[in-house]
Amino acid sequence: MRPRRLRRTPSIRALVRETVVRPNDLILPLFFADFLDEPRPIRTMPGVSQLPVSHAAEQARQAAQLGLGGVLLFGLPKHKDARGESGADPNGPVPRAIRAMKDAVPGLLVMADVCVDEYTDHGHCGVLKAQPDGSMDVDNDATLDILARISLAYAAAGADIIAPSDMMDGRVGIIRGALDGGGFEGTSILSYAVKYASAFYGPFREAADCAPKFGDRASYQMDPGNSREALREARLDEEEGADMLMVKPALPYLDILAKVREATQLPLGAYNVSGEYAMLKAAAAAGMIDENRAVLELLTSIRRAGADFILTYHATDAAKLLG
Ligand code: PBG
């Protein structure tokens, strides 16, 4: 037996390759700010900027021209408060960007991340409540209402897919009910079902200006040591009506991705997060790694582990490499 026969030439390797990445598998996250006139580069994410809403149409045309699977929008509002009310503003940065993108390219798939952390002055993913011991923690059930109203604002603006990233229990069911009640039964939910409390979100918190002002997210995001719990989270969100599931981060959790892939028939995404992007960019800038090869290899590995689609800041570069 000589397995090397099937590696001899590019054409044989192409024929027997089990996993491929297409531009259509990639979703580009974008940050739209209410208060900018010019793009503002994000120091910790070379090549990524916060964008004025006036750039949304151009971004939509670029994404479509590259053949990307879609975009995922985050918003940076002018005003923040304790509850994150500006998230539900129909004229907030995300609804305005959605409308501009859909006007420019009606067929572009537009996803909107739903969470209050970009809209709260304390940076947590929910409404806070004093605990019996005097500490503050996120009040799960008190957060569901604002999440539902943000989802409605995004759906009304034309988002195809609502993507809740907050990790509150029960939010998928509440959001599904709100969307159906508002006449948006055709709007899908992509649940960040399996989301770990990860150091790899560090750069994102500068990008979305949402670092918690105290404490961390460990009381709502998952413990990195847990894997059975991932299947439980995935099952609950499926039962509540999620159309698609996501695992996040991607690279340190490929084992989780593979397990969730076996456990569900729903389409499954993986989020190649800001810290994963920053590490690769830093190594490439230091001349330590071949960026283009590394990007295609890591995207392939995420697909091979079981992701149907990948949310990644490399989307634009990778689509160009894939031709
Ligand atoms: C929360 C949210 C986060 C990310 C996406 N949605 C940050 C967090 O949970 O702390 C992280 C994405 C990334 O790191 O690229 N709204």
Describe how the helices and strands are arranged:
Layout: H1 10-16, E1 26-33, E2 40-41, E3 49-52, H2 56-66, E4 70-76, H3 93-104, E5 110-114, E6 128-130, E7 136-138, H4 140-157, E8 161-164, H5 171-181, E9 188-195, H6 202-207, H7 228-240, E10 244-248, H8 254-263, E11 268-272, H9 274-285, H10 291-305, E12 309-312, H11 315-322
Parallel strand pairs: 1-3, 1-4, 1-12, 4-5, 5-8, 8-9, 9-10, 10-11, 11-12
Antiparallel strand pairs: 2-3, 6-7
The structure holds ligand PBG.
Task: Give the structure's gist in a few sentences.
The chain has helices spanning 10-16, 56-66, 93-104, 140-157, 171-181, 202-207, 228-240, 254-263, 274-285, 291-305, 315-322; strands at residues 26-33, 40-41, 49-52, 70-76, 110-114, 128-130, 136-138, 161-164, 188-195, 244-248, 268-272, 309-312. It has 323 residues and is of the alpha/beta class.
Q: What's the helix count?
A: 11
How big is the Rg?
Answer: 20 Å
Q: Strand sequence of the main sheet, in spatial order?
A: 1-4-5-8-9-10-11-12
Helix-residue proportion: 25-40%
Low-confidence stretches at least 5 residues in length (pLDDT < 50)? none
Question: How many individual β-strands?
Answer: 12
Approximately how much beta-strand content do the residues carry? 15-25%
Shape: globular
Give the SSE order as H and E letters.
Answer: HEEEHEHEEEHEHEHHEHEHHEH
N→C terminal distance = 35 Å
